Amino acid sequence: MKILVANLGSTSFKYRLFDLPEREGDGGRTGSTEVELARGGVERIGAAESRVYATATPSGRPAVKFEAVLPVPDHGVALGAALEQLTADGGPLRDVGEVAAVGFKAVHGGRYTGAVRVTADVLAAMEEMAEVAPAHNPPYVKAMRTVMERLPGVPLVAAFETGFHATIPPRNALYAVPTAWVEEHRVRRYGFHGASHRFVATRLLDLVPRRPLRGISCHLGGSSSVCWLLDGKSVGTSMGMSPQSGLPQNNRAGDLDPFAILHVARRTGRDFADLLVELSGRGGLAGMSGTSGDMRDLEEAAAAGSDRARTAIEVYVGSIRHWLGAGLVELGGLDAIAFAGGIGENAPAIRAAVVAGLGELGIAVDPAANAAATTGERLISPAGARVAVWVIPTNEELVVARQSRACLVGGGDV
Question: What domains appear along the chain, each with residue ranges and CATH number?
Answer without folding.
Answer: 2-159 (3.30.420.40), 209-391 (3.30.420.40)
